[in-house]
Design goal:
This protein is mainly β. The protein has three helices and six strands, in the order αβββαβββα. It has a six-stranded mixed β-sheet. A hairpin with a 3-residue loop joins β5 and β6. The longest helix is centred in the middle third of the chain and has 5 residues. It is globular. The termini are far apart.
Length: 87
């Protein structure tokens, strides 16, 4: 059975990569007229994004890279910028 969530329930949700790394927290959704296009994920203390990003506050993750949503959001590791890419 398909379980639906309200967007307001998603905001603040913790985001993890499929390899188990804490990525950040959902800050906002980017919508088209009929569906979710992407998610803005903010870098929070102790997250992978906080370690990788220096001046940016977060990243936009396309919804196609979201693998599942439940108590947490699980995304593909390919959404994460590599540390060597940032140097």
């Amino acid at each position: 059975m398909l379980r639906m969530k309200k967007l307001s329930e998603i905001y603040g949700m913790k985001v993890y990569t499929d390899e188990g790394d804490f990525f950040g927290e959902v800050e906002e959704s980017v919508l088209t007229s009929t569906k979710v296009h992407s998610w803005r994920v903010k870098a929070v203390r102790g997250s992978y994004l906080q370690k990788v990003l220096t001046n940016a506050k977060g990243v936009i993750v396309p919804h196609t890279l979201v693998k599942s949503m439940g108590d947490v959001m699980l995304i593909s590791k390919s959404a994460a910028p590599a540390i060597s890419d940032m140097e």
